[in-house]
Amino acid sequence: MYLRTFYIRHLKRILDVALALVLIVFFSPVCAVLAIAIRLDSEGPVLADVPERIGQNGKPFKMFKFRSMVTNAHELLRTDPSFAELFKEYKKGSYKLKNDPRITRVGKFIRKHSLDEIPQLINVLMGDMSVVGPRAYYPDELENQQREFPHVRKLVKKVLSVKPGMTGLWQVSGRSEINFDERIVIDARYVDTLSLLNDLVIIFKTPWVMLTGKGAV
Prior knowledge:
Blueprint: H1 2-41, E1 53-54, E2 60-61, H2 73-79, H3 84-92, H4 105-112, H5 120-126, E3 130-132, H6 139-148, H7 153-159, E4 165-167, H8 180-192, H9 196-212
Helix pairs in contact: 1-4, 1-5, 7-8
């Protein structure tokens, strides 16, 4: 019990910073190529213009991601009448779309292999995220999904008690093929069993998930 508490309070942050620094150096050439490809493929910034996510203890934060969609994609889906039916499908599918017309050609590739997530290493260094943790949700997603699945509200509070992660138990257990209520149960299980060993297992599983693109949309 003492070792688990020590890991959560102290060692996990040290591991996060060390891994983030190493991975930033490792992925820097990849990031340069992706930045050029994104700019050549479609108009708009290299980084996504997405709204804030909900972090630890309900604190909102700006998540960094490579842009994989057309500009202003988040607002277009919610306000453009031509996307009304798609938005209904989006909410019905636990805030995921299998055939999303907003995704660019380069975006389809980087989303499949989770390369759009690399800039989140900056969030890790800033202390908003951890390398391993639960998914970071949009505010409206959390609100609407808890209304649809009221039985998971207590689990949501547990999930928000820790920092969200770049990867996590749900990501290596099916990714977008898992619905919201199942995802929350998995993330709550992660919090209950949070340990150095379990984090290392998830970290070592993540490259295979990225390479295969299993469960990605």
